[in-house]
Amino acid sequence: MEKFKRPFRKSKRSFRRRLPPIGLGDQIDYRNMSLISRFISEQGKILPRRVNRLTLKQQRLITIAIKQARILSLLPFINNEKQFERTESISRTTGTRTRKK
């Protein structure tokens, strides 16, 4: 059996150069809150590298800066404001309980 070769095709995706998320003048530091807040989700989690479009070294430095800011209480560890916004109270028991003697 002969194997058929497929013709070489170029990728149809166009290459678009994006601006880097961290500029050359930006310093990655725990005090730079405007920079750090760009890499945190709404829940307070550190966004992954594929979402941030950062290099490995930049992601490590951002992670360290975020953790330092959390320890120094410049940032919250979690943002769970929506968790406590329940309008109706949920009862756990379905019937009345009686004590056994």
UniProtKB/TrEMBL annotation:
<keyword id="KW-0687">Ribonucleoprotein</keyword>
<protein>
    <recommendedName>
        <fullName>Small ribosomal subunit protein bS18c</fullName>
    </recommendedName>
</protein>
<keyword id="KW-0694">RNA-binding</keyword>
<keyword id="KW-0934">Plastid</keyword>
<dbReference type="Pfam" id="PF01084">
    <property type="entry name" value="Ribosomal_S18"/>
</dbReference>
<dbReference type="InterPro" id="IPR018275">
    <property type="entry name" value="Ribosomal_bS18_CS"/>
</dbReference>
<dbReference type="GO" id="GO:0005763">
    <property type="term" value="C:mitochondrial small ribosomal subunit"/>
</dbReference>
<dbReference type="GO" id="GO:0070181">
    <property type="term" value="F:small ribosomal subunit rRNA binding"/>
</dbReference>
<dbReference type="InterPro" id="IPR001648">
    <property type="entry name" value="Ribosomal_bS18"/>
</dbReference>
<dbReference type="GO" id="GO:0009507">
    <property type="term" value="C:chloroplast"/>
</dbReference>
<dbReference type="GO" id="GO:0006412">
    <property type="term" value="P:translation"/>
</dbReference>
<dbReference type="GO" id="GO:0003735">
    <property type="term" value="F:structural constituent of ribosome"/>
</dbReference>
<dbReference type="InterPro" id="IPR036870">
    <property type="entry name" value="Ribosomal_bS18_sf"/>
</dbReference>
<keyword id="KW-0699">rRNA-binding</keyword>
<keyword id="KW-0689">Ribosomal protein</keyword>
<comment type="similarity">
    <text>Belongs to the bacterial ribosomal protein bS18 family.</text>
</comment>
<keyword id="KW-0150">Chloroplast</keyword>
<comment type="subunit">
    <text>Part of the 30S ribosomal subunit.</text>
</comment>
